[in-house]
Every structure is written in C-alpha cells, then in structure tokens.
Design goal:
20% strand, Small auxin-up RNA, SAUR_fam, single chain
C-alpha cells in the first residue's frame, strides 16, 4: 500500500488523502514542498520539536500551505526523522 522510511509515509504513496489515526501531515521542502504523514509521537522528540520551533519562527501560525510547513530541505527532514525510528 505505501512505501517510505519506517514511521512516516510520503503522501503520494497513499491511495487516499485521509490521514491515519495517530498521524498528522507536514509539508517539507524549500522550493517544491512535499506532504509527509508523520506519527504524532514525533511531537515528543527534541529534534522534531526544534523543527516545529523553526516553523513557528518562520511562518508563525499562518501556514502558507494550509497545513504545517517545516522550513528545511527535504533530505534534512528525512535524515532527522529517520533517526527517530
């Protein structure tokens, strides 16, 4: 059904646009943003909390994509989140 690193799934891999229970969507990337579905448990991780702080610092609570946008390169996001698994 889906592919990706354990713990999170790229939205393009899903047949549906629904978000599974226990997960939330984030947009990642600098120029072209991709949507990722990540576990809610990531919110407890200091590394992910730092990404959330950067998102708040750059965008405040007015998110440009209509969802949570993480202001970092996609490869950095994948590297950091893969360490959480």
């Amino acid at each position: 059904m889906a592919f990706g690193l354990p713990g999170f799934v790229h939205e393009a891999a899903l047949k549906s646009t629904t978000i599974p229970k226990g997960f939330f969507a984030v947009y990642v990337g600098e120029d072209h943003r991709k949507r990722y579905i990540v576990p809610l448990s990531y919110q407890n991780e200091p590394v992910f909390q730092e990404l959330l702080r950067l998102a708040e610092e750059e965008f405040g609570y007015e998110q440009p994509m209509g969802g949570l946008t993480i202001p970092c390169r996609e490869d950095v996001f994948i590297d950091l989140t893969s360490q959480l698994n």
